[in-house]
Amino acid sequence: MTAVDFIDLASDTKTRPTAAMRAAMAAADVGDERAHEDPSVNRLLARCAALLGKEAAVFLPSGTMANEIALAVHCRPGDAVLCDATSHLIGFEGGGPAALAGVMIEPIGGRRGIFDAQALRAAIRADAPYAPRQRLVVVEQTSNLGGGAVWPRATLDDVAAVAHAAGLATHMDGARLLNACVASGVAAADHARGYDSVWIDFSKGLGAPGGAVLAGSRAFCDEAFRIKLRWGGAMRQSGIIAAACEYALDHHVERLAEDHAHARRFAESVAGVPGIAIAPGDVETNLVYFDVDAVAGGAAAFVAALQARGVRMVAMGPARVRAVTHLDVDAGAIERAGALVRAFCEEKRQNTL
Ligand SMILES: *Cc1c(COP(=O)(O)O)cnc(C)c1O
Q: Aromatic amino acid beta-eliminating lyase/threonine aldolase domain: which residues (predicted)?
């Protein structure tokens, strides 16, 4: 198996910058970003603020920093943040909410990473000195552990309305917001309308080597920039990276539809295979989650065996496996990945007969 044949479905972060993206980076106009003098960064920020329907934006090295800074701007130590129990900021940010903003998380049990206004209302309590002050509601569009599920516009609006009526701020983790836009046909600014802050990631399906843009009001962004600087996230000639992000906005957004079609195709091609439980109808974007039974070896053994055969996926629990489609995986690779999974499960079943 050559490196070229290996099919990496571990994450949409596995993309490598294309030759054209690298050329755009090499040609970028740059300046000192920390002094707001980088023309490429400034252009990207203006464009993202407009895209997200916000007054201003801040360039950041990563989405994790965008979430953590947003918590620190909206909250004070000891405050509580309400979000779905599956949220990225609970499970995958190194304890940042506690370590950096000093907040408590109050998880809400949603369905596929999505909770509704009623669940939020039930979680909101009257202010009392013995309880943490509830300050912020966070939604994740699309929901990662929810299987790439897209929050419906109406749910986003209702949740934001309940939050604001209770005096809480709202934040959208938009790591895959543009996947949601392409899948739903709803513009990014419309998804983000009720949210005081929102960010998009360039290192996921958009295929850039790094970068995230956090947007909100001018006052929010001024404070976010102060914290970015304090935490060492202010950069210098980062127009090199911003150029990759801008290239991605120009060339890699519409094509997310291909990733979604590939994800659905992969899910359909392994549905009904002995040992695998999957609902292809749940695949709305580029994330595919399925369960592997004991005959197929459970998630860890399944993932190890398939990796040896040339397709990498990730075990997300004892039975749960995640496969992610992206820019570097074409239709042929998806067919081959499906065939490898089917062949493996068929062999396992034969061996147990
Ligand atoms: C990847 C991801 C993040 C963090 O983004 P990085 O750019 O990898 O730091 C945050 N939230 C969600 C939902 C993600 O999938």
A: 8-291
